[in-house]
Amino acid sequence: MKRKELIKHLIDNGCELEREGSKHTIFYNPITNKSATVPRHRDINTFTARAICKDLGIQIIKIKKKITNNNSWQKSNTPKTNSKSRKTT
């Protein structure tokens, strides 16, 4: 998942940016009085994102599944045309 999506989820659930570390961002939840670190990577592992939400005591983020564009079924199911079998008149 993207880091921006996780940060938006944290802020929407009442967490605040506590401080910026050298390699991590620290978020604080004033309701539960807990804090957690968010790594500074563009993509964050699903397991890590859920653990951060659990550590802060907020709703676990729902991960959107990536849809891959796999058109192999279309290629195998399309009728094949044979260019050699054309009739010339």
Give the topology, please.
Elements: H1 3-12, E1 16-20, E2 24-29, E3 34-39, H2 46-56, H3 72-77
Antiparallel strand pairs: 1-2, 2-3
Could you explain how this protein is built, in words?
By secondary structure, the chain is an alpha+beta fold. It is built from 3 helices and 3 strands. It has a 3-stranded antiparallel β-sheet, covered by helices on one side. The chain is rod-shaped. The N and C termini lie far apart (60 Å). The model has no long low-confidence stretch (mean pLDDT 84).
SSE ordering: HEEEHH
Distance between the termini: 60 Å
Query: How many E-type strands?
Result: 3
Name the CATH class of the domain at 3-56.
Answer: Alpha Beta
Q: Mean pLDDT, rounded to whole units?
A: 84
Strand order within the widest sheet? Answer: 1-2-3
What would you give as the CATH superfamily of the domain at 3-56?
Hypothetical protein
What is the 3D shape? Answer: rod-shaped
Task: Please provide a brief summary of the model.
The chain is α+β, with helices and mostly antiparallel strands. Helices cover 30% and strands 19% of the residues.
Give me some keywords for this one.
89 residues, alpha+beta, three-stranded antiparallel sheet
